[in-house]
Amino acid sequence: MRRKVAAAVTALITLLTMGSLAGCGSEADSSSDGSDSGKQHIYVLTAPEDHGWTGAVATFAKEKIKEVNADGKYSAELITSANASEQITKVEDIISKGEDNASVVIQPIDDTVQSAIQQLADADIPYVAFDRIIDGVSSSAVANVKGDNSGIGSAAAAYFVSKGLKPGEKIYVYEGDTSSVTTLRNQGFTDYLTGKAKFEGKTIDAASKWTDDQLKSITYSGSMNWSRSDTKTSFESLMGDSSNANIKWFYAQDDELTMGILEALNGGGIDDATKKAFLANHPVLTGCGGLKELYSVLAGEKYQDIADQLGGLDSVTYSPAMIQTAIQDMVDHLDGKTVKQDHVIACENVTADNVKDYPSF
Predict the structure, then answer these.
(1) Distance of alpha carbon 204 from alpha carbon 193, whole angstroms
(2) What's the confidence (pLDDT) of residue 37?
(3) How far apart are alpha carbons 248 and 59 in whole angstroms?
(4) Taking a C-beta distance cutoff of 8 angstroms, is the pair 189, 249 a contact?
(5) DSSP 8-class letter at 165
(6) Other residues' Cβ atoms within 10 Å of the Cβ of residue 186
(7) Which end of the chain has fewer surrounding CB within 10 Å, N or C?
(8) What is the pLDDT of residues 83-96, one digit of tens each?
(9) Percent of the chain at pLDDT above 90?
(10) How far apart are CA 41 and CA 102, in angstroms?
């Protein structure tokens, strides 16, 4: 209602202004970017298309936007922001236009964008949130599209069990950061081991189930800032104590972190004897995300002298291509279809056996 009143006032002012300009011999600008042509317009807001997982989101968004525009029923455009404050400004700019045909798909850069998303809701602009779901405003979204972060932990744990993990064995977890993403990925991992969570519809078998006391054999790295170089340095330091060469199970919460481990094993920062002992134990590594470099290792194209000595290598899916699902959810909503508000995309394990079936970035 607020938008309709504002639009009416704006239209009246525009008519009066045009009349005034006509009296002065001026012409109003009738050009349009397509967002006010009567066709429903979808603004897709992400971080810049620069590097890493977040940058790849914009790349996949552009593919879907091209598809939407080619279809012709709706129009769409990508708007990137370098930081949260810029993204807030972009949202406010959209709202200030007062368009009746606006809709938004947004990947919030951080939780401070909550206020801008609340403004979208207050202005009756339909929106889909992607990846970073902010609890305070999630109930007003058409859909909250995200990967299954707890499922990622469960998938990694299930992979370890399939490779022979026994209750109470030493596990080292390389954590991404201190956010809820890491918390959920940790929780899903331990919940699967203790039988509280499922992966692919199944719980852990009774013989492999862990007790809460056995979970104490899991060591957590602390925040790696999703950084390959930080993980490489951390792993080299860990192997600085040769007794740690007997740790067989490494759960890295992102492919960049897994690549940090592989780079450390490929470099000269670890004593040769320790490295030999570590690889002789046929360690098992997991990652997450769909990074092209790690998929190349899985496909037998890179680091094969190391990969051949591993007991297993896995990457759990958490693809930036999920942004396309978020955009499709908005299209379906505009088409009048029912859209699931809590849209969690299930994850899968990618190994050498099936890597060719999955897109990378």
Answers:
(1) 7
(2) 61
(3) 36
(4) no
(5) -
(6) 20
(7) N
(8) 999 999 999 999 99
(9) 87
(10) 5
Give counts: helices (H), strands (E), the chain.
12, 12
CATH topology assigned to domain 149-318:
Rossmann fold (3.40.50)
- Does residue 128 contact residue 145 with C-beta atoms inside 8 Å? yes
DSSP conformation letters of 198-248: -BTTBPPPGGGPPPTTGGGGEEEEEE-TT-HHHHHHHHHHHTTSGGGGG--
Residue 114, pLDDT > 90, answer yes
291 Cβ contact list (under 8 Å, min separation 6): 53, 255, 256, 259, 315, 360, 361
And the tokens for 179?
Answer: 């956010």
Residue 104 CA to chain centroid, in angstroms? 18
List where CATH 3.40.50.2300 sits in the chain. Answer: 34-141+321-344, 149-318
Q: Give percent of the chain above pLDDT 70.
A: 90
The listed CATH number (3.40.50.2300, 3.50.50.60, 3.40.190.10, 3.40.1360.10) that belongs to domain 34-141+321-344: 3.40.50.2300
Q: What is the pLDDT of residues 164-193, one digit of tens each?
A: 999 999 999 999 999 889 999 999 999 999
List, in sequence order, every beta strand (DSSP E) within 11-170: 41-46, 75-80, 102-106, 127-130, 143-147
Q: Exposed, middle or buried by CB within 10 Å (0-12, 13-18, 19+), for 11?
A: exposed
Nearest to 359 by CA among 325, 322, 328: 322
Sign, CA dihedral 62-224-220-354, equals: positive
pLDDT digits (tens, 9 = 90+) for 290-312: 999 999 999 999 999 999 999 99
Alpha-carbon gap, residue 107 to 128, rounded angstroms: 9
pLDDT band at 98 (very low <50, low <70, confident <90, very high): very high
Q: 3-class DSSP state for residue 118?
A: helix
